[in-house]
Write a structure and sequence with these properties.
By secondary structure, this protein is an all-alpha fold. It has one domain (about 15-80): Orthogonal Bundle (Cytochrome Bc1 Complex, Chain D, domain 2). Helices cover about 65% and strands about 0% of the residues. The chain has helices spanning about 1-10, 20-30, 35-40, 45-60, 65-80. Helix 2 packs across helix 5.
């Protein structure tokens, strides 16, 4: 009974930020301080647009190493490009 209740509660939750994918965890860590991950995952952009957006976010104060930036961009290009 308790397991069924837990599953019902979990199914109604936003699980966007919870992932085993290292790139998604990195996006949550580096990007969700200013806006929700729903904003990111609800958006489809070209590869060039993702590069520009990430560069702009870093100029506005987002903290990411060069390696982290590359991982974020690679993931977004692969998963969030039309």
């Amino acid at each position: 009974m308790m397991i069924a209740l837990s599953l019902v509660l979990i199914s109604g939750c936003d699980m966007t930020g919870f992932s085993n994918n290292p790139a998604k965890r990195l996006i949550k860590k580096r990007c969700s301080g200013c806006h929700s991950t729903k904003r990111i995952y609800g958006s489809r952009r070209s590869s060039k647009e993702w590069e520009e957006i990430v560069a702009r976010m870093i100029r506005h104060g987002a903290k990411a190493t060069g390696e982290e930036r590359d991982k974020i961009i690679d993931y977004l290009k692969k998963e969030q490009t039309p």
